């Protein structure tokens, strides 16, 4: 028997369409308001946090196989909900990320931010990659 | 003057490399333990939640221009941290998402899950897209 | 045999001491850095969110017995971690809350905030009860 | 002039009533569905996480005055929303916490959990203080 390809999702747009079909086939549109999708995404982001909560930073770099797989599944869940939310709001993920990186490059120029991810003169709420 | 192209990030792998370069140029590797990246991602996911917290589900479908842009930036932040975390853990985002969708199709077959995103016989902790 | 009282935790300070003893007895101090405790609290807050994610606002007011009990346990978890974190940081919970309510009363005077929990002229990041 | 007492909130029940009055005076009941309150709480829990995200565990034990005050305000926000949510759901906070501690003592007996906050034979989703 020929080996089956694992999957054929080669880019974000294909992922977007597959998730859309998945939700449509189950008539889940009514649950997928942006508000609910943002909630679900944030629940998954916390599930992604949980395996790390009692680990030291170094331990977090050396996850065992079981933990690595659990984290991999939670990362997948976050991407799935993020893609769905962006789809429902008609936001292009890569374009949004590219624009944000460009903005961050201006907010955190190398000469100011070298070796220092901590907030300098910004109000509370800023973190290094974002505003 | 010729219009500048917005950006040239056409796929997730290019995004991954740009974020890697961004962090390297600022010597931020020491901050980017998986634990810290998971924390930062979860902070951004909550920032994404905030514009929706007092809106009704219907209002959440009709964001004004300013709110839509704020949400777009938070979506970008989540994708940036997710991509960075996956990079540090050597996880392929699209492959992980494809595997998870396949798993979900088995856990939530159309005949059981049609019109019903709520948990049926699963223990607390399950949501519709994920385990 | 006389029925044992359910518990004898009548105030926050007693709760604080019981949690301290619980952690001490298990030699868990080394895990309980403020950073880790904040992470754990945020994981529990998301577990508290999860039962609500696909419910309409009205449905969320009418939880079934099983869901109500699940929510009750997650509320307990959040309080336990919050109390522990405040203890480790030597913060008095009621005093902090009272000060914050006083601050909120000034930021959201009744004449401005009546019937409107949405942000008016505040920068992103503000919600109604907090800054 | 005699110094005014900072506040007169000496117990959780008084805090509960003050928050209720605060929301009533502003006609905010319609926003305070359990779903929205759980969302707001989870947003505040992430704001509490943010000051810690790039700190080492040791640094997190030695916050500067400004950071300590920021954390104190976020802790207050979490308590305020938790108290409000419990009030709306008619859940007694201390009773719920006491019951949960008793449950945890059974799930994490000292002889098994001594020096080890990590999950032993529990399914993913368990953390040390909670189920």
Automatic annotation (TrEMBL), chains A, B, C, D:
Gene3D superfamilies reported for this sequence: MazG-like
InterPro entries tied to this protein: dCTP_Pyrophosphatase, DCTPP
Membrane-traversing stretches: none
GO molecular function, one term: nucleoside triphosphate diphosphatase activity
One GO process term, biological-process aspect: nucleoside triphosphate catabolic process
Highest taxon of the lineage: Bacteria
Name of the protein this chain belongs to: Nucleotide pyrophosphohydrolase
Organism in which the protein naturally occurs: Thiobacillus denitrificans (strain ATCC 25259 / T1)
